[in-house]
């Protein structure tokens, strides 16, 4: 009897529980994933890694449960309205795209972008299967479902591109091209590097006679970010097991001899933050020409979520469970 009760409870809540859990994991990663670059607490890092590993698994299983329910005759399987299940499937596909704050937990994760692509293709197929089973007979949420589906496709495409760009092979290839173009530029115009370096030295605004161990903060935050980005472009070659050119080495030595100790640490801190963003977030996919195109498409797609909210809010929900409606509102918000 107990086993039957547990089985009935599972059949009743399996879809709802996976949708709610997927939503909570997304919120957790959005809020706490950036903490990984600031703290070394093993418990928090473990929770972040667990959430990162679970977020794809939960979304995929949720879509699988919804797909399975379409062919089930169980009363519990059909307790959740079919159109609402299709709507939830679109949100699970959206969750599969992951938050912008984390796309990888280690360098090896980015190299597995083909695995993510294959999983994404299967999940899109399962989601479309759900639509084909439901919408011919139930058009209640067809429009908002398609709008969220568009947002999910865009978000997953952006994630896959970010994983591809941050993989070791792509990073190394882009760095080699950058080094080659820089060497050619220096050969054609030897004063180019000196002008860039002199400009940074002038912006230091260090008092005459200040020494390298001076701990006074002199640089404004905007200048620190600008200088950190300049040195990030130099030192990022280490990520690809490359070395910078001689001119860059001399420039960095000259710079850090003239900057105060605290300002040097501030510049290095921001520089490390740039490296983290490149390796573990969607930064590479966002801050590029194609990234801006993706963001424009994403803006249109996420505007569609707002439209989906408006459409869902105006629909008559007499046949829908109050709990299911509240879950849907949580997903939309």
Automatic annotation (TrEMBL):
<dbReference type="Pfam" id="PF13968">
    <property type="entry name" value="DUF4220"/>
</dbReference>
<keyword id="KW-1133">Transmembrane helix</keyword>
<keyword id="KW-0812">Transmembrane</keyword>
<dbReference type="InterPro" id="IPR025315">
    <property type="entry name" value="DUF4220"/>
</dbReference>
<feature type="domain" description="DUF4220">
    <location>
        <begin position="50"/>
        <end position="332"/>
    </location>
</feature>
<feature type="transmembrane region" description="Helical">
    <location>
        <begin position="228"/>
        <end position="246"/>
    </location>
</feature>
<protein>
    <recommendedName>
        <fullName>DUF4220 domain-containing protein</fullName>
    </recommendedName>
</protein>
<feature type="transmembrane region" description="Helical">
    <location>
        <begin position="289"/>
        <end position="312"/>
    </location>
</feature>
<feature type="transmembrane region" description="Helical">
    <location>
        <begin position="117"/>
        <end position="134"/>
    </location>
</feature>
<feature type="transmembrane region" description="Helical">
    <location>
        <begin position="47"/>
        <end position="66"/>
    </location>
</feature>
<keyword id="KW-0472">Membrane</keyword>
<feature type="transmembrane region" description="Helical">
    <location>
        <begin position="86"/>
        <end position="105"/>
    </location>
</feature>
<feature type="transmembrane region" description="Helical">
    <location>
        <begin position="17"/>
        <end position="35"/>
    </location>
</feature>
